[in-house]
Please model this.
Amino acid sequence: MTTPAVDLPFLDIASPDFRFDSPVVAEARAANWCAKTPMGLIVLRYAEMHQLLRDPRLAQSGEGYLKLMGIHDGPLYDWFVPIILHQRGADHLRLRRLVSKAFSPRVVEGLRPFMRDTATSLTEAIAERGECEFIADFADPMPARVMCALLGVPPADYELFQRWSTDVGLVYSFTLPQLRTRVEEAVVGLHTYVDSLVEHRRAEPRDDLLSALIAAEESGDRLSTQELRNLAVTLVFAGHDTTRSQLGQALATFAEHPDQWRLLSERPELAPQAVEELMRWAPSVPAIFRFAVEDIDLNGIHVPAGTFVLLGAHAASRDPRVFDNGDRFDITIQREAPHLTFGAGPHYCIGAATARAEMAEALAVLSSQLAPPSITGPVTWRPPTALYGPENLPLRFEHR
Model:
């Protein structure tokens, strides 16, 4: 027996003041494993989200999402619809196998010294002043430089890439129709630049990810020029925007928990565990988009084919059915259940290792050189979306 969706609690996720960690979300999670939204359903409990992440009856659809936004063609549509995130079955497996050959552990570990040096340089500039606007001074340039280094972009072009990447990341805003021109200009700029970079790397391969992607081969199969372009643009915004927001979330969280910052500075070996706790507590990806490709009946709820489904990673990662003391931020606790921010199943984030390494290196350097942060002014947060974090974060660090 299934329950019609009208009996479910309602969450207005498009409201400017909506927060995924609010009491109203906790109340809805206590009432049922999912809730209604203006766009479809949102999954709130860990067990159901964990199951549905692996359920082939739910799929990512760039076309379906853009249609919800009233976008049916143009440069944004041509890029977003066929990216690897939205591929399924054999097409997705083929792309993932080729990309995995380039995204090797050797590549990620080889970037750690660059990550550490970049974090150190940015932190030293902050330490001299004792205060900063953290997003502009650290969270934005750090992942942009790392992603550019990964792809082999010359340092002179870092700021250009940083601006394009920021604008492309707005594709996941629920106000995308109003931002469409800005996003499309960034997509066109990145496409043109990446095409030129691919041409140069084909002529003169280097020790970077783009050269590895060009050389990647599986039984004679290689990535086409269009696939290379789409992958590169996707990696740029995925590697920059999500990490920038996660770094902002991290420092905002530590400003509320200075004792945890002091603990990290005393025990830098906790940095990897701190990353996991931060991504559980305040994820930059609070929800993952899916569409039901056929009818689903799960735990008393009927989900019709075509329904837009948000998998609420933030809400699920505080589910008291799974996490003891889930409403407590503590970097010393080794959680038995993993957070779901990177997804699961066939679409598990292919850049997870890179993101974890970058966050750990950044936090280890920041906490070793700076006293606990305190927020010194108003903080502007992104509107509720699949990418969430502070747009600005004014901080002060007391002298040690």
The two ends are 62 Å apart (CA to CA).
